[in-house]
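Re-run with default settings, no changes from the original entry. Doing this only to confirm the output is reproducible before filing.
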Amino acid sequence: MSSYALTVKCPSTRGIVAAIATFLAEQGCNITDSAQFDDLETGNFFMRVSFKSERGATLEDVGAAFGPVAEPFGMEWQFHDEAEKMKVVIMVSRFGHCLNDLLYRWRIG
């Protein structure tokens, strides 16, 4: 069973989480992790949802059906396959235990 992630950015309003959760459930997907954040200064809402398709839907299938859910909220969104490693940049203000901890955690998987 493949693990996927959905990332969302849009103006903050009521009903976003419910719309996303309902959509994923209707697509036969099980949410395994979810994190969200409201930026009060900009009025934007950010969300990352990890999920697995229990019906074997592909990333393309789920992504193609998501447009009508995203449109009323003005969402910027992307689906990702969690098996594909993403390039990241880690910036630290100084060397020390935080950087060492991140590198150690990466090394052990």
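The longest strand covers residues 29-39. The CA atoms of residues 27 and 62 lie 7 Å apart.
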